[in-house]
């Protein structure tokens, strides 16, 4: 109590709070002030979808994907490389294994509780053709994605997330795009923000979206050794009309210059279409 009273008297004595004489440093890239202490944003409420996965879906997925193996697996077969690694003439040459790429040819990992199929991140990206003429046309798209996902630049100081990112051209296409030109926006969601976006998408957007044909999957006749068959990524697109169905946008739709379409990628730890179907 005495320390509180002394601090109060020190402020009243001068008549005002002390001035901050030390100026904040600025980031060279964004020209924004850098605070003296790191400001981090944390989860402040339990996530319903995340709890539902750990309490219900994880056990069901383990039961549906479990494959009993009678004994330990034999050691993996060592496949000979195309060139001798001890040959000095092939030291820096690309040296793939004999028989081509081994993608999709290796057996899946054994069924264990630590490798149950799960959602690792959700990637959202959208391209704006008008940004080729003026990069200011990306401001409406950035504002819309920040509203939907709740992410900002560097994601509130978290080093594990990048937040809203500007997509720039990598190659030069004659008469259309040049390297380094901003053409779109993307954001990667992980953790609680990922499950919050998934809950909003499933409960508010998809049920009210007309002519929604569901999540497309490759047909049964497709090759099981293709990268898309073993990557564990489920992708689909939403039309521009779907952006107005998000509650964050719907309450103030007039504040945005237009509605934008987007592509959504669900990245899982699965290694085949069968596990992806179970996760969906």
UniProtKB/TrEMBL annotation:
Q: Which GO terms describe its biological process?
A: translation
> Per UniProt, what is one Pfam family of this protein?
Ribosomal_L5_C
Entry's Gene Ontology molecular function annotations: structural constituent of ribosome
Q: Which InterPro entries match?
A: Ribosomal_uL5, Ribosomal_uL5_C, Ribosomal_uL5_dom_sf
**Region described as Disordered: spans on this chain:** 68-114
Keyword Nucleus present in the record's keywords: the answer is: no
Note the Gene3D superfamilies from the entry: 3.30.1440.10
Keywords associated with the record:
Ribonucleoprotein, Ribosomal protein
Recorded GO cellular component terms are: ribonucleoprotein complex; ribosome
> Which PANTHER family does the entry mention?
60S RIBOSOMAL PROTEIN L11-RELATED (PTHR11994)
This protein is called what? Ribosomal L5P family C-terminus
**Gene that encodes the chain:** mrpl7
């Amino acid at each position: 109590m005495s320390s509180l009273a002394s601090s109060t008297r020190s402020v009243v004595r001068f008549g005002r709070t002390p001035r901050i004489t030390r100026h904040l440093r600025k980031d060279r890239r964004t020209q924004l002030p850098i605070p003296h202490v790191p400001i981090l944003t944390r989860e402040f409420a339990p996530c319903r979808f995340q709890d539902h996965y750990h309490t219900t879906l994880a056990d069901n997925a383990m039961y549906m994907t479990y494959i009993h193996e009678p004994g330990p697996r034999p050691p993996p077969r060592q496949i000979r490389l195309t060139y001798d690694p001890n040959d000095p003439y092939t030291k820096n040459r690309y040296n793939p294994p004999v028989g081509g790429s081994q993608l999709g040819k290796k057996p899946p990992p054994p069924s264990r509780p630590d490798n149950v199929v799960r959602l690792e991140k959700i990637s959202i990206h959208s391209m704006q053709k008008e940004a080729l003429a003026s990069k200011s046309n990306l401001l409406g798209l950035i504002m819309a994605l920040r509203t939907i996902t709740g992410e900002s630049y560097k994601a509130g100081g978290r080093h594990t997330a990048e937040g809203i990112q500007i997509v720039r051209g990598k190659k030069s296409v004659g008469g259309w795009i040049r390297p380094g030109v901003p053409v779109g926006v993307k954001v990667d969601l992980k953790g609680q923000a990922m499950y919050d976006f998934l809950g909003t998408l499933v409960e508010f957007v998809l049920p009210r979206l007309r002519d929604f044909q569901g999540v497309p999957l490759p047909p049964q006749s497709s090759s099981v050794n293709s990268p898309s068959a073993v990557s564990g990524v489920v992708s689909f697109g939403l039309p521009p009309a779907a952006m107005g169905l998000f509650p964050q946008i719907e309450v103030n739709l007039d504040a945005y210059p237009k509605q934008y379409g987007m592509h959504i990628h669900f990245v899982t730890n699965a290694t085949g279409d069968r596990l992806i179907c179970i996760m969906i």
